[in-house]
Amino acid sequence: MTEMPLQSLPIPNDWDRSGLPPWTYHSPALFDLERQTVFLNHWQVAGHVNDIPAPGDWLTFDLLGERAVVMRGQDAQVRAFHNLCRHRGARVVDGAQGQCRGAVVCPFHGWVYNLDGSLRGAAQPDSFGRLDRAEFALKPIEMEIFHGFVFLRFHSGPQPAVADLLAPYAADFAAYGAAALLPASTAPWQAELPVNWKAVRDVDNEGYHVPLAHPSLQELYGRDYRDIYLAGGLHVSVGVFGDRPGRRWSVRHYVKHVPERPDLPPHLRRSWTYYGLFPNTVFAFTPEGAQFYHDLPRAADSTLLTGRSYRRANETRVQRLSRYLAQRIDRDTSVEDQKLTVWSNESMRSSAFDGFHLSDHEWGLRRHHDGLRALLPVMRLSEPPEEREMAARNKEMLGTG
Ligand code: FES
Ligand SMILES: [Fe+2]
């Protein structure tokens, strides 16, 4: 295992500095294609195995009409299923997370499933004539666990196994002890924004805005912030803090109280590091804790920002305090980003907007757009096709490379 800092690909000398055409931020027909081609067939993180430590513990993950439940069985195995009763499709569990005692009982008519998803029995089974229980188990969903984090994929797709996809992150995740992290709260945080999901990504995928838009982050690590671009669309951002005490209350106290981590390799000891996963997920590690966040699209103009936070086992009082301070800095940052995201999204409807003109510091944004264009070449068109022709046009462009 390497404990070396990751090395970035060089930014090309001459690259197209324009972004995606504005119409791609509000076309419902394109959004339908993104649903199938960008979201349901790419890996999504749903939580961490320690969110569901005991048999019968479960958490849910909803995405664009698909619903998953991740559950720990009597045998301690974690499994993922569609949260969909085989009788009439009700949710078999309701809420973000919870616990079943010994069995899952569908709240609609009371079909009962074992914790491994098999059907134990229907209510009033005689009313079905002959019912073959083996035929009606909960449907499994493809799942993979990477350093404790649970990844799901509703449909098979172009990405390799998570272990291969995220191999460049494995050494850092192991150094941070990701597999042993514990939940810092019992439910994901959530915020809904009336924007296209790409507007959220565009703001999050670059650090060029940090000096002006994020005074606390700038004070914390802005002088030593950099992007590391890796093959496979992976993108890491690192900010190293601690060269100055900081003037803002939360920054000053964070820098003072943040735990020393002599167990970490030197490049991670005083850094906030963000590990991106195409299309919509980021893992953030700091000396005192970790989180993941992702933007989950709901419609072309509606996106749910959500995530889960984690802490280290045997956390001391001072570690808890530094986690609280980091959360305050994060909360301010998130509010600042949300406003910029709304503005960026609005500009896509303005007749005066000529599109982006990107700096080298925004190459991450370009790479994200390139990833999308490879899946949906119709996004290369500067003028939108007719909505009803979107899918056909995209198919045609895929065919002609
Ligand atoms: S839908 Fe679940 S028991 Fe009827
Ligand atoms: Fe930001």
Q: Can you describe what's shown?
A:
- There is one protein chain.
- The chain has 401 residues and is of the alpha+beta class.
- The chain folds into two domains: 1-42 and 169-401, Naphthalene 1,2-dioxygenase Alpha Subunit, Chain A, domain 1; 44-156, 3-layer Sandwich (Rieske Iron-sulfur Protein), CATH 2.102.10.10.
- It is 26% helix and 24% strand.
- It is built from ten helices and 18 strands.
- The protein has helices at residues 28-39, 162-165, 170-175, 197-204, 210-213, 215-221, 249-257, 317-347, 363-375, 390-399; strands at 44-48, 57-63, 66-72, 78-82, 97-99, 104-105, 112-113, 119-121, 142-146, 149-153, 182-183, 189-193, 225-229, 235-240, 271-277, 281-286, 289-299, 302-311.
- The protein is globular and about 70 Å long.
- The two termini are 39 Å apart.
- It binds FE2/S2 (inorganic) cluster and fe (ii) ion.
- FE2/S2 (inorganic) cluster (FES) is lined by residues 85, 87-88, 90, 106, 108-111.
Name some characteristics of this structure.
Naphthalene 1,2-dioxygenase Alpha Subunit, Chain A, domain 1; single chain; binds FE2/S2 (inorganic) cluster; eight-stranded antiparallel sheet; binds fe (ii) ion; Rieske Iron-sulfur Protein; 10 helices; alpha+beta; 401 residues; 2 domains
